[in-house]
Amino acid sequence: MSNENEIYKNAPLVETVFEIRFPGEPSIECNRDKFYEKIRSDYSMVLVSSFQAGAIAAQPPYRFEREDGTSGVIMSINKISFYCKKYEGFSLFKKETMRIFSIFRELFKVEKLKRTGLRYINIIPFTREKNIIPIKNYLNIQIKLPKSMSTDFKNLSMIFVSQTEGGNITTRIEPVISENQTEEAIMLDFDYAKEKDLNFDSIDAYLEESHKHTKDLFEGLITDNYRKVMRGEVI
After folding, report:
1. What is the pLDDT of residues 174-229, one digit of tens each?
2. Which backbone phi and psi does 144 adopt, to 5 degrees?
3. Residue 94 φ/ψ, nearest 5 degrees
4. Which of 48, 93, 165, 204 has the most crowded Cβ, counting Cβ within 10 A?
């Protein structure tokens, strides 16, 4: 069994992102510097994406990032997100997210929201067994196929969307390989979205709800044996 507030020693989480989208606000493009001045002591690196073919005629997103690259803020005319690549628990992630978004709201007076999304990207390293992905060692996934078909998979790619009372969560499961082509891993990617009747005043509650549903799904998907690996009880 898992503890609701447990932080795993060897967690596979590599990136966490909370994003809000809202109707386009032109003043954001003209006043990015004011927002930057409020956060530059922590997020001093300024990175600007290149234009993409077919993109709307607006300034590309700005990314304000810590010097060590562990976290940052992405902001554009119609959305803002806080991302973290060194996760130290939900409480700390939420605290910094709310601080950043409070600064943003104070400057730009955004009230109505179109979407909120909390994303967790997990990378679970594995070694093939007789050229097969040993997914049952890590995830509780059951796939029923005709008796003539084997469930020993050389490759696997799954996307499913689960509806909740307040939103929906998209889960992606697929193998990935390192840049040098020497190590493989299972990517377990969650994206919990809310898109109805949203306002800035309730962001705290939206983030809590998103985390709860995502945490419950993660805990239900991982096997007890892999949980021991994450706790550092076994190698």
Report:
1. 999 988 888 999 999 999 999 999 999 999 999 999 999 999 999 999 999 999 99
2. -95, 125
3. -65, -40
4. 93
Angle, nearest 10°, between helix axes 90-108 and 203-221?
Answer: 150
Asked if residue 92 lies in contact with residue 70, where contact means CB atoms within 8 angstroms, the answer is no
Amino acid, single-letter form, for residue 18: F
How does pLDDT run across 113-139, given as a tens digit for each residue?
999 999 999 999 999 999 999 999 999
| Residues near 120 by beta carbon (within 8 Å), at least 6 away in sequence | 13, 15, 16, 189, 190, 214, 218
Strand order in the sheet with 184-194: 45-48, 62-65, 71-76, 79-84, 13-21, 115-126, 184-194, 168-177, 158-163
How many degrees, rounded to 5, is the angle at CA 63 between CA 82 and CA 195?
A: 45
Q: Is-contact 166 209, C-beta < 8 A?
A: yes
Cα torsion 30, 57, 55, 207: sign? positive
- Mean pLDDT for the stretch of residues 43-54: 77
How many angstroms separate the CA atoms of 222 and 140, rounded?
6
DSSP letter at 88 equals -
- Phi, then psi, of 87 in degrees rounded to 5: -80, 125
